[in-house]
Amino acid sequence: MRSLMVVKFGGSLLKNLKAQDKFLKELAQISQKRKVILVHGGGPEINALLEKFSITSKFVKGLRFTDAKSLSIIEMALNGKVNGILTSGLIKNGANAVGISAKDGKSVICKQIKQLGLVGEPIEANKKLIKNLLNAGFLPVIASIASNALGDVMNVNADTLAAYIATAFKAKTLVFLTDVCGVFDKNMEIIEKIKVKAVNALIKNGTIKNGMIPKIESCINSVKRGVEEVWIADGTSGIKKIKGTVITKN
Ligand SMILES: Nc1ncnc2c1ncn2[C@@H]1O[C@H](COP(=O)(O)OP(=O)(O)OP(=O)(O)O)[C@@H](O)[C@H]1O
Ligand SMILES: [Mg+2]
After folding, report:
1. pLDDT (0 to 100) of residue 205
2. 114 contacts: CB under 8 Å, gap ≥ 6
């Protein structure tokens, strides 16, 4: 089987149209040669839509607290808007992209994290739908909405979802494209390589915070579970020549 690459496109990059265009063009090219799954968030689009409904979000360690009203708006932003933009952009560039969310085909089942409201943590993957899409030559574009075993819809952090999918599908490569050039140290210099065991201290001393916390934790989980190449990468450099921080086991 051709090696699988899972890419998480940060919602933070949606405001940078140049970066988005470059990424879509390059990812479409890569998908002609290897299997690709794209997972996306949608932070700014979600915030903009929530603002229109006069809702402000609380964040707990970089994760958005989600009530029922916010959830329907988040679904609108992710499934309705961001997923459509990325899927059509890829199709325009010649890729066989198909937009879904993680709840479709019960692809990812999650367990509610009650202190975060209607937020779920992935606990089970049903690989049939995504596997069939990949084997038929499609590029699945997956929004970070999943459901629990009863089918109740939940918001899932897109980084957590990307890592879970990368592990479940035994991806070789996992790249988190974001709006910074990688992980910064205290002096705002890029750390080129971070070992798993060094991460806790960086979180504890406040070097890694906010949205970078679920991202680096997702990296650790996937590296530990056998994904060979894991990157937090500069979204403006594209996906062909990846630049940023590599997360390694040792
Ligand atoms: N040590 C650090 N190095 C780099 N960025 C950091 C660090 N600590 C916190 N951050 C923040 O993490 C942000 C990236 O995470 P964020 O969740 O905002 O983006 P994303 O995951 O790409 O987008 P989305 O959550 O919408 O999918 C950066 O813009 C930066 O402000
Ligand atoms: Mg994020």
Report:
1. 96
2. none
